Amino acid sequence: MNHEIEKALSRFNEGFNCAQALLAAFAPRFGISEEDALKLAAPFGGGMARMGEVCGAVSGAMMALGLRHGYCRRGDKRAKEACYRTANRFADAFRARCGSIMCRDLLGCDISTPQGMAEAREKRLIITVCAVAVREAAEIVSELLGQD
């Protein structure tokens, strides 16, 4: 297991959310401080601020990939397509490993409701399911960045 994958798991186990764990692990590679990465990714945990939408590990991974493959010139269609192609490769790989990119689907409950959050806590889904999502997302990002 490489350093960035270990770092993502470590940050998650320290209590940072899934998106924070992913972006903080890879951001320093691109000159972004871990502190700035943690701040930037903070609202993306729990499927966008606990709304159960796109998994925070997926969002954090996409941001990390954007640091390498993102585009910043208006009208740069080639760069835009390359960025989206990489993002889609990530999403396809994550779906293949985890079954979905949606938080509520991964957890099997909707954490945007009090009942769903209670169920997630009772079943310890954040510790079990989310930790796996963080690891898988970090592994895929590492693989995709290694192919460059």
Automatic annotation (TrEMBL):
The record, for InterPro entries, names: CGCAxxGCC_motif (IPR010181)
Protein name listed in UniProt: C_GCAxxG_C_C family protein
Origin species, per record, is Syntrophobacter fumaroxidans (strain DSM 10017 / MPOB)
